[in-house]
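Question (not urgent): is this output format expected?
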Amino acid sequence: MSLHELSAVLWRERELLDVLLYKLEVERLLLATDRRRWLGRAAHEIEFLTARLKEVGLARAVESAEVAEELQLSAEATLQELADAVGDEVWRDILLAHLAALREVTGEITELRDANEQLLKQAARPAGVAQHAARRGTTTYDARGLTRDVVEATLVDEET
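Got this back:
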């Protein structure tokens, strides 16, 4: 039975998700302490892990489909459905443990990702205000004492 292979793929997926959780935590700490030097690297590592998770997800789908076929279920059967259909109590417990762990870590990842997104928005807000002010220009006085918007920088040569 392909349960061994499915369990091995689930372990790999769990390990990658744990590393992703760690990298998201590193990113959060970098954002919270305003240490932007390593943000690009952290984002790159998160992207790399996301790509690896897609590959493992594909392997998981293949192994799940094989197990589902052996259990005479639809190839799209969920992990819960596979666990419910397997006859061996030990394998049922193993699959349910994988399912519980995957649910827990994905919940943590979602929370952390959302928190990081908020921190990124807060960090970008001052830059957005500055960009808006630069686009809009600043208000100054002209030679007649009237206010006007200055869109371009003005160079003042005090020697002439």
